[in-house]
Amino acid sequence: MPSISHMIKGLKIKSKDVLVEGPHSTLPEDEFFDAVETGLDKIEEDMQLRVKLKLQSQQSQISTHNSVNASATENGENDDVDAEFGTGALARSHDLWEEIDRVCLEQLHYARQGVGQDGNGWQIFADEGEIKMYKREEEVNGMVVDPLKAYHSVKGVTAREMCHYFFMPEFRNEWETTLEDCTILEKISPDTYLFLQTHKRVWPASQRDALFWSHMRKITDGLDEGAVDTWIVCNNSTNYSTQESKNGKCVRIFLTVIMACQTHLPPGKTKADKLTRDDLTCKVTYCSVVNPGGWAPASALRAIYKREYPKFLKRFTSYVIDQRKDQPIMF
């Protein structure tokens, strides 16, 4: 998911030594944006410094972890678990399964739809090389909840690898700059989790958290021409758990997100061939609808979206490329 802390609730200003927030704040919208922008920049700088200081040990740990997983799969260990992974078979007895299955199929259908048909309101707001991002401007009770859709083409990784790093919680803190804490409330199955995710506070906004299930699935039907496989990760807020925020003060975000990825190979090549990473292209579609709750000036939120979403997608895809470059290919 992108830095959800940038989709944030209104203002905190001092009045008679009491912090208040809401649409009646006297802080101008441009100052709100400037303050949030500065806060996000500081968080990103801090993360870059931590990565720089700990890179050697982190790389060693990640390399070891991935090598063990890859070799276990290649050597036929855990075949039963791996065969079931991405099918949802081990989650179907759970109370949430009907909702998970329905939302995943709806979001996959949504991700497969284009952005140019029927004058449906999509506007391009970022066009940076292989990345193209679109939005539709929508509000609910005065709060910006613009649906967003992004397309990207990434060389050197597979669909499963992209989804693996987006889904697995142990990697999230390495690419999600605003993440403060990610708690697994329930491991429903190896491909389905229930999370409480808390984000760092960015002044002048309140701190945010999100409670959502996450499901990773292999798609076997309706593949695009030229695609050898398709994987998705779908995240969706749920009321299944009544877990309160960690500090009792967070404003809860409500979200629906899908990352849909396809692996493409050069003409005439298949997964059974001896492949290098130069043969791999992953086509990514990322869709999100996020209600940050509370209140924030619409113009500032949209300005933050425009700045943060391309940065998130570039940062995440670069991270996956870096993690997989010396690893066995994972389909």
Automatic annotation (TrEMBL):
<feature type="domain" description="START">
    <location>
        <begin position="118"/>
        <end position="325"/>
    </location>
</feature>
<dbReference type="InterPro" id="IPR002913">
    <property type="entry name" value="START_lipid-bd_dom"/>
</dbReference>
<feature type="region of interest" description="Disordered">
    <location>
        <begin position="62"/>
        <end position="81"/>
    </location>
</feature>
<feature type="compositionally biased region" description="Polar residues">
    <location>
        <begin position="62"/>
        <end position="75"/>
    </location>
</feature>
<keyword id="KW-0445">Lipid transport</keyword>
<keyword id="KW-0963">Cytoplasm</keyword>
<dbReference type="InterPro" id="IPR041952">
    <property type="entry name" value="STARD11_START"/>
</dbReference>
<dbReference type="GO" id="GO:0008289">
    <property type="term" value="F:lipid binding"/>
</dbReference>
<protein>
    <submittedName>
        <fullName>Ceramide transfer protein-like isoform X2</fullName>
    </submittedName>
</protein>
<dbReference type="InterPro" id="IPR051213">
    <property type="entry name" value="START_lipid_transfer"/>
</dbReference>
<dbReference type="GO" id="GO:0005737">
    <property type="term" value="C:cytoplasm"/>
</dbReference>
<dbReference type="GO" id="GO:0035621">
    <property type="term" value="P:ER to Golgi ceramide transport"/>
</dbReference>
<keyword id="KW-0175">Coiled coil</keyword>
<dbReference type="InterPro" id="IPR023393">
    <property type="entry name" value="START-like_dom_sf"/>
</dbReference>
<keyword id="KW-0813">Transport</keyword>
<dbReference type="Pfam" id="PF01852">
    <property type="entry name" value="START"/>
</dbReference>
